[in-house]
Each structure stands twice: as structure tokens, then as C-alpha cells.
Amino acid sequence: MKVITAKSAGFCFGVKRAVDTVYEEINRGGKIYTYGEIIHNEEVVKDFESKGVTVLNSREELERLESGTVIIRSHGVSRDIYELIRKKPEIRLVDATCPFVVKIHNIVEEESKAGKEIVVIGDASHPEVQGIIGFSDTPVSVVQTREEAEKFSPSEENGVCVVSQTTFNYSKFKELVEIFTKKGYSINTVNTICSATEQRQTEAREIASQVDVMIVIGGKHSSNTRKLYEICSEECRDTRHIQTLDDLNLGSPESIHCVGITAGASTPNYIIEEVQSYVRGTDF
Ligand code: F3S
Q1: Does residue 252 carry a pLDDT above 90?
Q2: What's the distance, CA 266 to chain centroid?
Q3: Which whole number is the average pLDDT over 131-156?
Q4: What is the model's pTM?
Q5: Could you tell me which CATH class the domain 13-98 is placed in?
Q6: Distance (Å) from CA 193 to ligand 1 centroid
Q7: Residue 213 needs a FRET pair 20 to 30 A away by CA distance; which of 187, 193, 243, 283 works?
Q8: Which atom of ligand 1 is the closest one to the Cα of 98?
Q9: Which CATH architecture has domain 2-10+195-280?
Q10: Residues lining ligand 1, judged by CB closer than 6 Å?
Q11: Residue 16 is inside which H or E element, if any?
């Protein structure tokens, strides 16, 4: 019996930084709010709540707020949210936006100022993408599928700048960019997929191809976890998505000789370790 745990499983640099920021602010004291859940992990969010941190779930809730510390999560927010907070002198802004996301905001801001239309390859409903859209002064299209890429035609004549959601699947990104390139538009493509995601996806694929059961740990709403699940399912028919050890039922372990474990960027280490020691300790 073998257990292979991905080295890249768990918190990435940006998420670790955001989570550490919240703990630092808790130690500092005062009333703390996070604009949206700081990461897509119920366990971590519950722990923050027990320490007095309140999640602001909408722009309206932020508008009603008069004082306190507001922490922006690693996904980032659109420019108008910064403007809204700056108008409230009693609110202290702590920005935990991942530097890789800030880089996308800067690219989009500059390129749109230069008149380029923006294409974001990613999921339009994801907060990171909504934040990116909010940095453009020119029209933005969000493209996630081949069909959407085929249908796209620029409305501006100044060219197009293509960026990507940081957690987008790299091979899908290449496929979509190829469709744009074939159309012959003047396109400036910046691959803004974060290497943490790429490494995690590549390692997950490699492990999933060698094991009988592949376990993907991560929040139900975490898009990078769902993508990991998708990739692993292509390689291993018995791929399971769990949030914590409580969700894991290995069924008939006699037929299982090798188990792989990976986890999304929002999964704390202790959950990965719990799953790993449970699987190791299971009597195969
Ligand atoms: Fe940042 Fe990459 Fe994580 S963009 S939040 S380090 S997945």
C-alpha cells in the first residue's frame, strides 16, 4: 500500500499571506471585517469568525460600514471598492490581494488606458475575474469556452489584450489563445496563470495517473479545487472531492493499493495531514 501526497498541495503563497494577515490583524485588535470570505475554506472562515472577524458579503454591507478594519482577500477587488473604502476615513484598509493578481490589475489598467479591449480568460462569476474587470476603462469580455472564443469579435480597433484568471487551466488557456491568434487580430497575450496553480495541476495529473484512488481536498466553492478534481478525474476514475476527513469513505479498501492526495490552494495543512494519516493508518 502506497500513499502519494502532492508536494504542492495546500496553501499557495498568496493565500498563506492573506490568512497570516487576518491573524496579524486579530492580534492587533479592533473590529475586523473581511470583504468576502478570506479563502474558500469553511474551517478557516469558522475559526476567524470565532475570533470575532465578520465577513462582509456584499457591496451594500460595505457601504453601510462606518468604522473598523477591512481586509481585502487574495482574489482582489475592483477599483470602485477601493474608492468606496477611501471615502470612509474611519475605515482602515488592509490589502491582502495576492501580488500576482495586482499584476493583472496593473496590466488591465495600463492596456485599457492605451485603448485596448480586454479579454479575461476565466470564469465570469469568480470574484477574482470581477475584480479584474473593474480595472478596465474599455470593454471587457470574459471567455471560458471554445464556443465563446470562436464567437468573440473585438468592438474596438485599437487591439486586444488577453489576460487570464490566475487559477485557469493552462492547456485550456493555450487552446483558447490559439483560436484568437488564428483570427488574426492584433493581440497582446499575457499569460497571467499563477505558476502555483500550474505546478499543482501538473503534479496532480502525474499522481492521479499512478493511483487507484485520488483524493482532492478543498472547499466546495473553490474553483481551483474543482479544476484539480476535473484534471484528476481524467486520469483516475476513482477520484474523490472531500472538504475534510469526515467526507472520506474509502469503501472496500482491499482493492486499493495506492492512494494519491492533493489539495486546493485554500486547504490548511492540518486537514491534509489528517487525511494522510487516516489513509496511511487504514488497514488495506
Ligand atoms: Fe496568488 Fe497564485 Fe495563490 S495568484 S493567491 S499565489 S494561486
Answers
A1: no
A2: 8
A3: 94
A4: 0.82
A5: alpha beta
A6: 9
A7: 193
A8: 1
A9: 3-Layer(aba) Sandwich (3.40)
A10: 12-15, 74, 98, 100-101, 166-167, 194, 196-197, 265
A11: helix 13-28
Q: What is the DSSP letter of 80?
A: H
Q: Separation of 13 CA from ligand 1 center, angstroms?
A: 6
CA distances from 79 to 70, 86, 136, 138, 142 (A): 15, 11, 9, 14, 18
Judging by DSSP bridges, how do beta strands 117-121 and 140-143 pair with one another?
parallel
Sign (positive or negative) of CA dihedral 255, 244, 194, 230 = positive
Domain 100-189, CATH class in plain words: alpha beta
Confidence category of residue 283, pLDDT binned at 50, 70, 90? low
Ordered by start, the domain boundaries in the chain are: 2-10+195-280, 13-98, 100-189
Distance CA 94, CA 246 (A): 34
Determine the distance separating the centroid of ligand 1 and the alpha carbon of 98, expressed in angstroms: 6
Q: Do 15 and 225 form a contact (C-beta atoms < 8 A)?
A: no
Residues marked active site are found at 128
Res 194 pLDDT > 60: yes
| Mean pLDDT value across the chain | 93
Measured CA to CA, the distance from residue 247 to residue 117 in angstroms comes to 44
For the record, the C-alpha cell of 61 comes out as 454591507
Instruction: Tell which one of 37, 95, 100, 104 to mutate to probe ligand 1, the residue whose CB is within 8 A of the most ligand atoms.
Output: 100
Phi/psi for 164 (5° steps) reads -130, 150
Check if 2-10+195-280 and 100-189 are the same fold.
yes
